[in-house]
Amino acid sequence: MTVQNGLLMPAVRPRLPLAQRQLPQFERALVERGLELRRGATTTLQVNVGKLCNQACHHCHVEAGPLRTEIMSDEVASRIVEIVERSPGIATVDFTGGAPELNPHFTWLVDEVRRLGRHVIDRCNLTVLFEPGKEHLAEFLAEREVEIIASMPCYSERNVEEQRGHGVFAKSIAGLRRLNALGYGTDGPRTLNLVYNPNGAFLPPSQVPLEARYKAELAANFQVTFDRLFTITNLPIARYADYLDSQGLFDQYMSLLVTHFNPQAVTGVMCRSLISVGWDGTLYDCDFNQMLDIPLKSARSIFELASVDLEGEGIATGAHCFGCTAGAGSSCGGSIL
Ligand code: SF4
Ligand code: SF4
Predict the structure, then answer these.
(1) How far, in Å, CA of 32 to CA of 9, rounded?
(2) In the Cβ-directed half-sphere of 267, how many Cα atoms lie within 13 Å?
(3) Is residue 85 included in any domain, yes or no?
(4) 118 lies in a domain?
(5) Residue 94 Cα to ligand 2 middle (Å)
(6) SS3 per residue for 245-287
(7) Which residue from 61, 261, 285, 294 has its CB within 8 A of the most atoms of ligand 2, so it is best to mutate?
(8) Cα–Cα distance measured from residue 48 to residue 285, given in angstroms and rounded to the nearest whole number
(9) Is residue 12 part of a domain?
(10) Nearest 5 degrees, angle CA 250-CA 251-CA 255?
């Protein structure tokens, strides 16, 4: 680890690209079970507005951080609004990053998408609510009833700070309290969901009992409430692949994913109903393919996209897809089964 701008930054090591490793074949696993992965109706546009983030977490599959300069331009942002306007099937626009709120067009994008009557998700790291210039961000999100999905890998300080850096736990709790005071996570129209992901080379535990435990611990110790907990499997890419490599655990983790392959989870993987848009407008089947630079098969860019009607089209898969289909399965909305 190195320290930059007071933040723990994972050391950058040369990494063997996934394509050059001897990896188990996801396509073969599907064929052996008589399965095929194809797109259904697209209902969610997931928009990655850039890699800039005020944090630099160990597990970050985006490799986001305070020094990243990739950020969505106003031209791409305007095109996104255009596509949403002409696509009534898109019910939800899901903003992610980096910290999406650090993109200068974020509030404009949220307002435009809400004007079109679509649901908005903000994947918020909580600490961004306390960044200089973001003092009114929480009120802005509350007024527009934006759903917040916030990373909270544990209810204990030690586990959160191991993964997300020193001082993050206290700020996250302060952020949750602030959101609760604005009506978030209190059974009203302001939805606050938390995300758990393992802080080691193992699969997430069962979502329902873990949610009950989180609710009990956060209420008892910090008087914090929330709606749902999503358990998400770490995919062996980017910083998480570095972590596995550094511990000599990459092959072991891949084998864990493969031996837990669950064919039932295939029907619920998020790429069947979602298109992911990169900061530069490139299109992907999901955020993970985006990080691996595996574009959508039918259109490379949002400027080429005539319609989001891609039903029946094939999905670009790879060994990382075992991460979405292991055990109870995993998606941006938590466990699949
Ligand atoms: S807060 Fe999220 S986007 Fe930022 S570094 Fe952490 S995991 Fe990555
Ligand atoms: S990694 Fe992406 S393409 Fe692969 S199964 Fe998961 S969502 Fe689908």
Answers:
(1) 41
(2) 4
(3) yes
(4) yes
(5) 16
(6) HHCCCHHHHHHHHHHCECHHHHHHCHHHCEEEECCCCEEECCH
(7) 285
(8) 13
(9) no
(10) 120
In a domain, 34, yes or no: yes
Distance CA 99, CA 8 (A): 17
Interval 133-161: pLDDT, tens = 999 999 999 999 999 999 998 998 988 88
Rounded (10°) CA dihedral 75, 69, 283, 330? -130
Task: Judge if the beta carbon of residue 99 lies within 6 A of ligand 1.
Answer: yes
d(CA 124, CA 135): 14
User: Which residue out of 321, 330, 335, 336 has the highest number of ligand 2 atoms within 8 Å of its CB and is therefore the one to mutate?
Assistant: 321
Of 147, 155, 106, 97, the C-alpha closest to 125 is 97
Lowest mean pLDDT across 146-155, 249-258, 271-280, 298-307 = 298-307
What one-character-per-residue DSSP string does 97-155 give? SSSGGGSTTHHHHHHHHHHTT-EEEEEE-SGGGGSTT-TTHHHHHHHTT-EEEEE---S
CB-CB contact of 275 with 46 (8 Å): yes
CATH number at residue 271: 3.20.20.70
pLDDT tens-digit series, residues 293-318: 999 988 889 999 877 889 999 999 99
Q: At what angle do helices 168-181 and 157-164 cross, to 10 degrees?
A: 110
C-alpha–C-alpha distance, residues 243 and 12, integer Å? 11
